[in-house]
């Protein structure tokens, strides 16, 4: 019965691939198989000294840093990020989280994570948007990796406006003390995986990581859905 209803629904409101807008079958998620195959991947994701990891060298101590997709020249990746961030496409967020989770399971270092921590939005911004896109990714990853997601350990204190027009140094200054760790005792000695949808300069990750590294014996790894390298 559900299948029949799904088919009728598909006739009335056809589901289209987020990237190429071709018709999707009811088995498909939000992206068609062909687009999945051709999305530009962050190919060096398994390497400890990949270009994304190098971005953080000399800035914060990390165990491992990686991403699933590469933003370079890709409208499809832009479209996916936009859908997740601004269009409330929660299924796509979960689906991409699962894809990122599968990619992390291929790397040994990521198999020793205690908690997944999505980069928090400022509560005001989260209220306006209604959700945090990084939480969706984290929930999808958690399904695949069987690792607990924690969303109340870190809070974002500052409501900074769009950072896109600022220079790197200004962004860095602006990002100081943005984040505060609320339950440091519960994180002592743990290895946490910080998640964000996209990493460009790495300033947000760095600021959140700095706050967390105040916790005794805490280790940090970082993963993002997409990276601009
Ligand atoms: Zn497609």
Structure notes:
- This protein has about 230 residues and is α/β, with parallel strands linked by helices.
- The chain is built from 10 helices and 7 strands.
- The strands form 2 sheets. A 5-stranded parallel beta sheet has the order 1-7-6-2-3, with helices on both faces. The chain has a two-stranded antiparallel sheet with strand order 4-5.
- Strand 6, helix 10 and strand 7 form a beta-alpha-beta unit.
- It starts with a helix and ends with a strand.
- The model has no long low-confidence stretch (mean pLDDT about 90).
- Bound molecules: zinc ion.
- The site of zinc ion has 8 residues, from helix 2.
Strand residues, percent: 15-25%
Major sheet strand order: 1-7-6-2-3
pLDDT averaged residue by residue? 88
Output the number of helix runs: 10
Can you write the helix and strand succession as a string? HHHEHHEHHEEHEHEHE
The appropriate CATH architecture of the largest domain is: 3-Layer(aba) Sandwich
Output the radius of gyration.
Answer: 18 Å
Poorly predicted parts: none
Tally of structural domains: 2
How far apart, in Å, are the first and last alpha carbons? 48 Å
Regarding CATH, which class of the largest domain? Alpha Beta
Shape category: globular
Helix content: 40-55%
Main beta-sheet annotation: 5 strands, parallel
What structural category characterises the helix and strand content? alpha/beta
Small molecules held by this entry: zinc ion
Annotation, overall tally of beta strands: 7
CATH fold node name of the largest domain: Rossmann fold
């Amino acid at each position: 019965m559900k299948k029949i209803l799904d088919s009728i629904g598909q006739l009335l409101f056809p589901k289209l691939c987020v990237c190429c807008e071709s018709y999707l079958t009811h088995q498909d998620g939000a992206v068609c198989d062909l687009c999945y195959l051709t999305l530009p991947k962050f190919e060096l994701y398994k390497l400890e000294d990949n270009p994304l990891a190098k971005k953080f060298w000399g800035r914060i101590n990390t165990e491992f840093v990686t991403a699933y997709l590469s933003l370079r020249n890709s409208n499809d990746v832009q479209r996916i990020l936009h859908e997740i961030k601004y269009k409330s496409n929660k299924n796509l967020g979960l689906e991409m989280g699962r894809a990122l989770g599968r990619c992390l399971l291929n790397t040994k270092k990521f198999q020793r994570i205690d908690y997944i921590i999505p980069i928090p939005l400022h509560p005001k911004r989260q209220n306006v948007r209604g959700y945090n896109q990084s939480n969706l990714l984290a929930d999808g990853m958690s399904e695949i990796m069987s690792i607990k997601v924690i969303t109340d350990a870190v809070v974002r204190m500052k409501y900074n406006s769009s950072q896109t027009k600022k220079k790197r140094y200004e962004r860095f200054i602006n990002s100081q003390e943005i984040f505060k760790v609320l339950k440091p005792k519960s994180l002592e000695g743990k290895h946490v995986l910080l998640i964000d949808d996209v990493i460009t300069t790495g300033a947000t990750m760095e600021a959140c990581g700095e706050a967390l590294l105040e916790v005794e014996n805490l280790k940090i790894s970082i993963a993002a859905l997409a990276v601009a390298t």
